[in-house]
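Translate structure to sequence.
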């Protein structure tokens, strides 16, 4: 075991070039105070510490940082599914869809949406995220929140809120990491912001619970492919039922604000939005690979000004039922964004005129959620941590579709492939300090980053935690899996560089761990 540990420690040193002859700062040593037997039994996909052969996934979301237009597969036309018929009916009734509307339909349509009833995360799904790769990822995030809690004076009540929690592995690792801090764990209530009934059940199972079945059958009849306008009626009816008491929770329950308590007394609640989470304690927020799935608008500058890229029915030959088109005149979205000075306004003397052909992507929904998170921190105090792939600026074209760990055409396979875009961290930062109804001088917050995922986790002491776990292993195959998971998280040519980390904290707190500078 000693020989094996020495070999792998040398490999870590060579990989990061930061561990050798380095004295860990005090905050990094916190990872060594965790239970030494705390190797996770979660399913961390191909990098778990159980025995078995390593299975390599060739393509995952780590490779989505490249921005290039999708390649079309020149084959026969794909089958026309009920969902495709539904989308075509919408276009016939309303005209071409914005890319934002298309993404919203593809991902969260109540009847056909990709996230609503599919196992999409993990080796058997379409993509893998960092929590499935390594338990250390979630453990260090848990310790980051613990450190902030200490700096805040250890408030008695904390709402730990996760946006888009997926299979629940990240939160499970967070909770395990704070087992050595019972005072902090006692203060916690867990809140998941989750729209998918399928994922709500997966998250409940991760904590030894069973989420009651959500019976939406009566409302699905309203979602008729011949009357897509009734989708709004579907949502209104669900909203009206949110707080309705149910006689038999196994038969039906409100889609929102539902709470379960597991056998060790941990309360877990599910909500549709941040506004439904109680304000009865400090808010500790984490959003990992959440913003990348939010809808974007795409714009292209033409000789007539900004025109929005839309999705229309494709009547030509080829595999696609849909095609990209440009709006014939300025769209509502482009006009609003020009007034908000998010894109240059035609004839403006204060902004440089873009070149014809210039394209940009903007996600107003991401910015709105960032504003709401900042407002919540002002109301309750706390901190927010964003981890996603993207840039410190806007993208020109980053819309991607991924299926079976491979990139596919985003206009094909409607509802069966993930749609995602690079996150504009500069927009999240601007939105942090642009809260409707709040004066800028009253926004007592600071943003930090974005920094690369590599730098963030190395600063938190990921190397030290890895070394500790390696010291507990006797099997060389298990050690190899553990070291590969570490490399996958922090290597520049894998997930270390394209993924960024940003934090928002109150001004009266010191700089949070993992960040060398203020954003």
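Result:
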């Amino acid at each position: 075991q000693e020989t094996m540990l020495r070999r792998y420690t040398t490999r870590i040193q060579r990989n990061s070039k930061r561990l050798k002859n380095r004295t860990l700062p005090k905050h990094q040593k916190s990872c060594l105070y965790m239970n030494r037997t705390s190797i996770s039994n979660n399913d961390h996909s191909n990098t778990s510490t159980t025995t078995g052969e390593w299975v390599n996934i060739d393509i995952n979301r780590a490779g989505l940082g490249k921005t290039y237009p999708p390649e079309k597969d020149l084959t026969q036309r794909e089958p026309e599914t009920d969902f495709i018929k539904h989308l075509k009916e919408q276009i016939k009734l309303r005209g071409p869809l914005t890319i934002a509307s298309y993404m919203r339909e593809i991902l969260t349509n109540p009847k056909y949406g990709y996230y609503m009833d599919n196992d999409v995360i993990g080796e058997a799904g379409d993509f893998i995220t960092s929590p499935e790769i390594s338990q250390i990822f979630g453990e260090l995030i848990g310790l980051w929140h613990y450190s902030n809690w200490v700096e805040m004076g250890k408030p008695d009540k904390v709402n730990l809120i996760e946006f888009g929690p997926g299979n629940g592995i990240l939160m499970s690792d967070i909770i395990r990491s704070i087992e050595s801090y019972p005072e902090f764990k006692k203060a916690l209530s867990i809140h998941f912001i989750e729209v998918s009934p399928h994922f709500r059940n997966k998250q409940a199972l991760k904590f030894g619970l069973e989420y009651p079945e959500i019976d939406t059958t009566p409302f699905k009849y309203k979602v008729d492919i011949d009357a897509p306008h009734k989708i709004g009626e579907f949502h209104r009816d669900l909203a009206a039922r949110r707080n309705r008491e149910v006689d038999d929770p196994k038969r039906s329950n409100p889609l929102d604000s539902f709470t379960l308590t597991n056998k060790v007394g941990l309360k877990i609640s599910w909500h549709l939005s941040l506004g439904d989470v109680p304000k009865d304690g400090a808010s500790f927020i984490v959003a990992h690979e959440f913003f990348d799935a939010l809808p974007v608008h795409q714009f292209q500058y033409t000789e007539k000004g900004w025109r929005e890229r839309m999705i229309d029915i494709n009547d030509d030959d080829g595999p696609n039922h849909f095609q990209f088109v440009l709006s014939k005149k300025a769209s509502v979205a482009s006009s609003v964004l020009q007034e908000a000075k998010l894109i240059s306004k035609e004839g403006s003397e204060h902004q440089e005129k873009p070149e014809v052909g210039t394209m940009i992507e903007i996600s107003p929904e991401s910015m709105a959620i960032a504003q709401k998170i900042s407002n919540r921190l002002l109301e309750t105090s706390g901190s927010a941590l964003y981890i996603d792939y993207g840039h410190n600026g806007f993208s020109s074209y980053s819309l991607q579709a991924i299926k079976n760990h491979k990139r596919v055409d985003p206009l094909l396979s409607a509802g069966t492939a993930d749609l995602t875009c690079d996150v504009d961290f500069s927009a999240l930062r601007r939105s942090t300090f642009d809260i409707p109804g709040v004066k800028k001088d009253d926004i007592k917050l600071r943003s930090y980053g974005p920094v690369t995922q590599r730098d963030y986790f190395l600063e938190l002491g990921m190397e030290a935690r890895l070394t500790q776990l390696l010291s507990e292993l006797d099997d060389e195959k298990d050690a190899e899996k553990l070291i590969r998971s570490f490399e996958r998280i922090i290597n520049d040519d894998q997930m270390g560089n394209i993924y960024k980390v940003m934090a928002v904290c109150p001004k009266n707190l010191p700089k949070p761990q993992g960040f060398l500078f203020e954003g």
